[in-house]
Specification:
Layout (H helix, E strand, L loop, with lengths): L35 H22 L5 H23 L7 H25 L5 H8 L2 H12 L7 H18 L10 H24 L7 H23 L8 H29 L1 H4 L6 H11 L8 H16 L6
Length: about 325
């Protein structure tokens, strides 16, 4: 899906980093001390390793607990930044209502689905499923956004991308050895992101609140949602093993908190078109991390299918015809 013209709150490893909500795109403050290419590389690594961290976290904690810890850590990071910058929270009840829905589709639901998915599928497959978000986004935008008109290039990208998905899943083998429930949850998580983007694009554009305030509020609301759900479906952990606990904290503090700040900085400095290229590095890094660190097996169709998915996603990012 092309980068939305309306600003939106940040998500996670996702398809198209767009202009932040309320951010004055094109304005420039002080030049960052760290070159944008280094920050781009850092963001790619953080989001690429997120799937490995989820896998490690679920070794000791229930998926809902991993998601709750992730959101809590990410919210804490943004809360500190908001306090330092003296950001004001949104005042409109309408804005809070829309942010509640955005938090569900962009944070609570996909984070939980990915955590549950990785109970039964490798982190490499979860990372590749995440790369289908631009494909779902384009398909949904053609239905939900009247200004998004199909072009031959974008339709071809959509078809090519889903051909790549079938390649990753080994369709010609009858999906032999595939865990259907885990894969379906990972694909639904990827679908949840563009659903949230379209909702935000329709409801929160021009809200007047700052990027940081909207994002911090969104993550806070996602944390509240998980804080309500988690005790209903899980029991309190009897212990807190060091490695899984650190993985969950890093997943939130780095993959949710710091990554959001890096993403917005890149969008403002180099624009959404360049910033969204991070999407194409995430599955590559997720696959390399899963194989090298976790020892996950990798058949030939997984990287080949992933490349086809990314090629299709790139085509769907082509210029829209109004």
């Amino acid at each position: 899906m092309s980068a939305p013209t309306a600003p939106r709150p940040a998500t996670e490893p996702s398809a198209s980093p767009a202009a932040p909500p309320g951010a004055p795109v094109g304005t420039s403050a002080r030049r960052p001390a760290l070159d944008w290419r280094l920050r781009f590389a850092a963001l790619s690594l953080i989001w690429g390793f997120s799937f490995l961290l989820i896998k490690v976290g679920t070794d000791a904690y229930a998926p809902f607990q991993v998601t709750l810890g992730r959101l809590l850590s990410g919210t804490a990071v943004l809360a500190v930044v908001m306090a330092v910058k003296r950001e004001r929270l949104p005042r409109s009840a309408r804005t809070w209502g829309h942010l509640t829905v955005a938090a569900f589709f962009l944070n609570a639901l996909p984070f939980s689905l990915f955590a549950y998915a990785e109970l039964s599928i490798p982190s490499t497959l979860a990372g590749i499923c995440n790369a289908t978000s631009p494909l779902w986004g384009m398909a949904l935008s053609l239905v939900a956004l009247s200004e998004d008109r199909p072009t031959r290039r974008r339709v071809a990208g959509l078809g090519l991308g889903f051909l790549g998905v079938l390649t990753v899943l080994g369709a010609w083998q009858g999906f032999s050895g595939l865990d259907f429930s885990g894969t379906a949850m990972a694909l639904l998580a990827s679908l949840s992101y563009p659903v949230g983007w379209i909702y935000v694009r329709r409801t929160l554009a021009g809200s007047g609140a700052s990027t940081l305030a909207l994002t911090g509020s969104q993550l806070f609301l996602g944390t509240v949602q998980l804080a309500v759900v988690t005790p209903l479906f899980t029991t309190a952990p009897g212990s807190f093993p060091a490695l899984p606990t650190l993985a969950v904290v890093a997943l939130g503090a780095l993959g949710t908190g710091l990554a959001v700040l890096l993403q917005y900085g890149l969008v403002n400095e180099v624009g959404p078109t360049t910033a969204q290229m991070v999407t194409y590095f995430i599955p590559v890094i997720a696959t390399a991390a899963g194989v090298a660190v976790l020892g996950e097996r990798l058949s030939w169709n997984t990287p080949v299918g992933a490349l086809i998915v990314l090629a299709g996603a790139a085509l769907t990012q082509g210029r829209r015809r109004a």
